[in-house]
Amino acid sequence: MKLFNYISLYAKFIACMVKKDTVTNEEYGKSYDEVASTYEKWVGIMGKHVKPLIKTEFFSKEARVIDLACGTGFISRELLSQGYEGELIGIDISEMMIKKCHEMKSDRVNFIQEDAIKYLEDMSHKGEHVDGIYLGWALPYLEQKRLIEVAYKVLKPGGYFITISNCKGTLVGVEKTILEVMMNNIHMVSKPMEAKVRLPKDEKHLGRWFKKRGFKSIHIGEGEEWVCYKSPEKLYQWLRDTGVLAGVDKVFYDVREAEDLLIEEFRKSHKTSRGFEVNHKFVYGIFRKEGGISCE
Fold first, then answer.
1. What domains appear along the chain, each with residue ranges and CATH number?
2. What is the mean pLDDT of residues 277-293?
3. Which residues sit opposite 279 in a β-bridge?
């Protein structure tokens, strides 16, 4: 029966992919709309890994920097708090995330609801350029080749692309947990996600993506954070409230119907001696477009 369910589920996935009926960027954006008010739970745990990448010394007082897929504006706030004096542009596809950003009162930052790559492509067509691009935690949702190529065009010589992203080996067991529920309840499944296939394998893999498209690696690295709760309900709530499960609500016809099943599967698969936990494995990198003055 399990083999039959497995084959049936993947047959459905293949049919959806042939029809290009997978979770879209717009649907991911809608998922993040729903967690905009609770997204600071993510920042509270993972923000410390982003702060070392925020380098105000890279940018002059006349600089223009884009906070791409800005979420609730954590990177923009940190840049401003560290004395950044240039212009900031925050871009996110989620309407509610941008509304949260507008609570930030600063005449140096402009927040815009837009698809990340489309915004950069529009800039490129207009011949506009910037000194830096930050991209926090959104790389798996974007077409990397298209993103990096247009970012290279938009950046001035000597400009920086700074990113942090989940990588292969993150959320060990979570995908399997979700698939288990899907296999046992195929009638509840609407369509698949495909962000997983876009995860960089490790820091070297991330570096190769950028090197292949003309960037110089200034610094790359990787890390891991474990998140632990005393109950599977609390763990699931954190995963949901922080956007970690973004897109899962589009996989099921009715995610509320699936939630109890998901929690029970987490109870079986994520119990450790410390409680119920998941890992976040990530990579990060600072990349420079050659041709300008080095600020290493």
1. 2-289 (3.40.50.150)
2. 91
3. 226
